[in-house]
């Protein structure tokens, strides 16, 4: 088959379906060969209709279709895979059986001994005492060091618990003292005192107290300053109006 491209060059088209019978005859030897070929052909036709074969090699499309078709017809476990899987399972079972047998032999070693033989493997009280003497001679002061380490650990733990309890008691006393002070404190005389008390109680670190004080300041000095500012603004406004009237009269006379 030939087709005409935009640059007017002819190229041979290769249909992946032509590879299906040859590949299936070499790869598949079962009774489902015909069914696999038909399914693979339908898959390739579906890929063509959905434009899924554009840009892909024909051999790759053929391999994907055959693989999918073989899986759909029960080809996931071929005979070679089944034989290898069977050998692997037999080897695993044999290894587990050998390990179990070895563990059983080791566990039954002591059960085969009589009481006389068992006494040879264990120390009597005299031997135990001799071992203790030898250990004390080779490790002088071992008991004292162990006791000192244990005491140091206990002292550190007790100190930590005591400091923790003292810190908790200190926080509790501070809370009680603060609550008592707030309870006995007189009511705020001004709005600024109320705001300042609330800021200190809630612990707002980013509050601009100076701005709040200026905003809530209702003293006589601020009132007189505001009155003076308003008077100056009114005076400037009157002067500006007089100048504008004079300019209008000059323009009218001219």
Description:
The chain is an all-alpha fold and 254 residues long. The protein has three domains: 2-76, Cyclin A, domain 1; 78-134, no CATH class; 190-254. Helix content is 74%, strand content 2%. The protein is built from ten helices and two strands; from the N terminus they run E-E-H-H-H-H-H-H-H-H-H-H. The protein has helices spanning 20-27, 33-49, 58-72, 79-107, 115-121, 125-138, 142-184, 191-202, 209-216, 220-253, and strands at 2-4, 10-12. A two-stranded antiparallel ribbon has the order 1-2. Strand 1 and strand 2 form a beta hairpin. Helix 1 (20-27) runs antiparallel to helix 2 (33-49). It is flat. Residues 111-216 form the Brf1 TBP-binding domain.
Task: Please give a quick description of this structure.
The chain is flat and about 120 Å long.
Strand order of the largest sheet: 1-2
Number of domains as seen in the coordinates: 3
Span between termini = 102 Å
Give the beta-strand count.
Answer: 2
CATH topology of the largest domain: Cyclin A, domain 1
Q: What is the percent of helical residues?
A: over 70%
The topology string of helices and strands comes to EEHHHHHHHHHH
Separate helix tally: 10
Indicate the CATH architecture of the largest domain: Orthogonal Bundle
Secondary structure topology:
Layout: E1 2-4, E2 10-12, H1 20-27, H2 33-49, H3 58-72, H4 79-107, H5 115-121, H6 125-138, H7 142-184, H8 191-202, H9 209-216, H10 220-253
Antiparallel strand pairs: 1-2
């Amino acid at each position: 088959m030939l087709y005409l491209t935009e640059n007017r060059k002819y190229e041979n088209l290769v249909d992946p379906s032509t590879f299906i019978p040859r590949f299936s005859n070499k790869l598949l030897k079962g009774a489902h060969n015909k069914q696999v070929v038909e399914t693979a052909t339908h898959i390739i036709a579906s890929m063509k209709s959905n434009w899924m074969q554009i840009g892909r090699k024909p051999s790759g499309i053929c391999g994907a279709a055959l693989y999918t078709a073989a899986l759909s017809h029960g080809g996931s476990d071929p005979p070679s895979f089944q034989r290898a899987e069977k050998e692997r399972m037999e080897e695993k079972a044999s290894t587990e059986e050998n390990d179990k047998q070895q563990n059983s032999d080791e566990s039954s070693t002591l059960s085969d001994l009589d009481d006389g033989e068992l006494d040879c493997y264990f120390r009597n009280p005299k031997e135990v005492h001799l071992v203790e003497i030898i250990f004390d001679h080779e490790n002088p002061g071992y008991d004292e060091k162990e006791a000192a380490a244990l005491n140091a650990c206990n002292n550190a733990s007790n100190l930590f618990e005591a400091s923790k309890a003292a810190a908790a008691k200190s926080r509790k006393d501070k809370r009680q003292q603060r609550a008592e002070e707030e309870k006995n404190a007189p009511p705020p005389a001004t709005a600024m005192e109320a705001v300042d008390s609330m800021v200190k109680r809630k612990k707002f670190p980013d509050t601009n107290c100076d701005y709040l004080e200026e905003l809530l300041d209702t003293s006589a000095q601020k009132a007189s300053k505001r009155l003076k500012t308003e008077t100056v603004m009114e005076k400037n406004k009157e002067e500006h109006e007089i100048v504008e009237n004079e300019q209008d009269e000059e323009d009218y006379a001219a």
